[in-house]
Amino acid sequence: MRIVVSGTHATGKSTLISDFALLHPEFAVLPDPFDLVDEGPGSGSFVAQLRFSAERLLDPDLPRAVIAERGPLDFLAYLAAVDGLGRSAAAGELVRREAPLAARAMAEVDLLVLLAPEDIAVPDDEDPELRDAMAEALLDLVDDPDLTGTARILELQGDPATRLAGLRGAVSG
Length: 173
Prior knowledge:
single chain, alpha/beta, Rossmann fold, five-stranded parallel sheet, 13% strand, globular
């Protein structure tokens, strides 16, 4: 089963994945592209992370049992958020240009886990406006079956234990 855990920043993706991986060592963990792609800030960084996350899902040597922190839809959502906030004149066009790649990669995903932002205040240096805009954009994108393919969508909320139980239930069921 290929799982992508999606959500805006500071939603608990890393915690959920690490807790899951401890109980399911048969799953390879794909870390957040943010930590792996060395790009400057802005739309170009989101495009680079989108392409990186898509390419690893499309890799023919990727194991079947994988849990990935973020997928291409996350970065489409960041681009859409940047566009909606008026922070980049090019972001809207980048969303349209990169959507086909994101859709191809998402066709390889069995389960898309969405983590909504909880009532956790984030400091200003975490850009709470972008965080909220990305969360809304991600929900819009997930409603598009052309982008999500046949992936089952699981929205999780609550404390870490509740989220972990929900993910484990979805995997075993």
